[in-house]
Amino acid sequence: MDLLGIETSCDECAAAVVRDGRQMLSNVVYSQIEEHRRYAGVVPEIASRKHIEWIDDVVARALQEADTDIGAIDAIAVTHRPGLIGSLLVGLSYAKGLAIATGTPIVAVDHVHAHLYSAALEHEISYPHIGLLLSGGHTLISLVKAWDEFEVLGATIDDACGEAFDKVAKHFDFGYPGGVAVQRLAEQGDPEAYDFPSPSLHKGQHPYDVSYSGLKTAVVHQREQFRNPRCAESDANVAAAFQRAAVDIVVDRALRAADDHDCKLLIAVGGVAANTYLRARLDESPVEALYPSLSLCTDNAAMIAGLGYHQFQRDGANSLDVNASARVRAFRAAYP
Ligand code: KG4
Ligand code: ZN
After folding, report:
1. Were 26 and a residue from 4, 66, 86, 293 both cysteine, which residue would form a disulfide, CB within 3.0 to 4.6 Å?
2. H/E element holding 67?
3. What residues does ligand 1 touch, defined as CB less than 6 Å away?
4. CATH number of the domain within which 150 lies
5. Which ligand lies nearest the alpha carbon of 137?
6. Shared-domain flag, residues 169 and 282
């Protein structure tokens, strides 16, 4: 069974064709980074306008690269939440139009859930495992019990992990997105040079929740102390100490979650899963750490088509009145 996946929840305009939930026949991503770079972040209005311009071409390319056409597609899987509402509506409306015009069923897919499924496109996955989603928009530690069942154990209470990297990168004038540039500078510094704060838990807060707003402020204060004179060495040390703190916050909690829930496997996804310090920490931990290829770690439509296949098999098609929603569905584990 071949599914066409469509993903437009943020700034990637993506389409893919996936056979039987796993075999990627095509995986096309048009990145909008250049459109947003000079604003140092994603501008929602620009994102949705670019999706409108590009979606037709992206879908045509995905079908062409898969050597198929819409008549041979069994269902269209499309992201309907969470994300930027204007961007989501472009992909969802396009999918509905295509469905009506061709009589193809549609399946509405949750973007966060699809990220947690993404490793299954390349690997045999065992359950339960810890799913760690770290991107510019999301920071989630989840207990994944089956392909269709997961609980969010912890999440950020303010900035996402990638957003913290990007904010620090902006402070260093590294451009957007700046996570990789911060990592490169950090590689030249001493991570122990400063002890940046790790957020303390407040009463009633979930024990695996994380926070990044205080860390970014501490980095800015620390760097300002070197204003006169500031040297390359102190900048590298600040970047290294920031990276250590930013990654340790979430890795410590994720590893504790693995231990508490008796999970031997941890799957890290999202753009920050490319971070070398994060990988080193996970690789030396007692759990087995798995990372999908980078093209599946970041936003893509193959994960949407992959998860959509299983939903379609189990539940059939969604009705055409399915709506978009900006909000993350509450998959929270009950606590306390
Ligand atoms: O999943 P992703 O491509 O996109 C969305 O958030 O939609 O993640 C991008 C984020 C950015 O914040 C970027 O700075 C961060 O991932 N990132 C990194 C690294 N590579 C990408 N952060 C730290 N270290 C990296 N090597
Ligand atoms: Zn994403």
Report:
1. 66
2. none
3. 10, 135-137, 162, 165-166, 177-180, 183, 270-272, 274-275, 298-299
4. 3.30.420.40
5. 1
6. yes
